[in-house]
Design a protein that fits this description.
By secondary structure, this protein is an alpha+beta fold. The protein has 8 helices and 12 strands. The strands form 3 sheets. A 4-stranded mixed β-sheet has the order 1-4-6-5, covered by helices on one side. A 4-stranded antiparallel β-sheet has the order 2-3-7-8. It is globular and about 55 Å long.
């Protein structure tokens, strides 16, 4: 069985409160993009996870794909069978694109079908939340206005298919915990749940990503990339999540050439 876990970008991101449990409340819009990894499961006599493509750091048993497998294996021991798992990574990691979360959520979806577990989306989303705050998004995988830690989601009417998106992923490591520590939580200055009613040409006036100020201070090259996207005609440009990916939304079929001394990958999505 084969699937293609996709990434997401954040359209606006506000850090609104530091919680008593040490996490932060946020408000954001998650938007899916069709930049994908490849995930395959096949019958086996022992279960293993094999990775290819971009290098995946850490122990295989710490991977969200493996954790998703273990979660459902423990919950449904009578239906679980041994499988080999093949994960080909294309989505850059640590870039604010949610690739690892997507892989874990897609693994839940695949096993639900493969093992005939008959779990609905609400049940799968509850399981995905045990993997990570933004994992439930990839169960629904359509534009969502998110609050709480990112796990409380509501549908939002938003369609960017009439535009092209240029995604720039520099080889820059952003220390997320440090970035959170440099943010002073504040009430959201704009109601992102109404984003679909705001013309995209006005987005740069009304919406922003709270992580940009501290992260751009640490990594000026990211600010320079964002400015280049605007200089080349982007209608809106922003960092996704806590970075380091920067995206620009352009009129359909319009492209841009980005120059920087920092190595990067770029993806043009129509």
């Amino acid at each position: 069985m084969l699937s293609f876990p996709n990434c997401k970008i954040n359209l606006g991101l506000y850090v609104t409160r530091r919680r008593d449990d040490g996490y932060h409340d946020i408000e954001t819009v998650f938007y899916p993009l069709q930049l994908t990894d490849v995930l395959e499961i096949v019958p086996a006599t022992e279960s293993h996870l094999y990775t290819s493509g971009l290098a995946v750091a850490g122990n295989e048993h710490d991977n969200l794909v493996w954790k998703a497998y273990q979660l459902l294996q423990d919950r449904f021991p009578g239906k679980a069978s041994l499988i080999d798992i093949y994960l080909h990574k294309t989505i850059p990691m640590g870039a604010g694109l949610g690739g690892g979360s997507a892989d874990g959520a897609y693994m839940l979806r695949m096993l639900n079908e493969y093992w005939d577990l008959k779990q609905n989306d609400l049940q799968l989303a509850a399981a995905a939340l045990r993997l990570g705050s933004d994992c439930p998004f990839f169960i629904h995988n359509k534009p969502r206005f998110a609050t709480g830690r990112g796990e409380i989601m509501n549908n939002i009417k938003l369609d960017l298919s009439a535009y092209s998106i240029l995604l720039i992923c520099p080889q820059v490591h952003v220390a997320t915990a440090k970035a959170f520590g440099m943010i002073t939580p504040r009430p959201a200055p704009f109601d992102l749940s109404s984003l679909g009613n705001l013309p995209i040409e006005q987005w740069s006036t009304y919406i922003s990503n709270d992580f940009e100020t501290p992260v751009f201070t640490q990594h000026p090259t990211l600010a320079a990339i964002k400015q280049q996207l605007y200089d080349h005609g982007a209608l809106y440009a922003s960092m996704s999540g806590s970075g380091s990916a920067i995206y620009g939304i352009f009129p359909k079929n319009q492209k841009a050439t980005i120059k920087t001394d920092t190595p990067f990958q770029s993806f043009y999505l129509e």
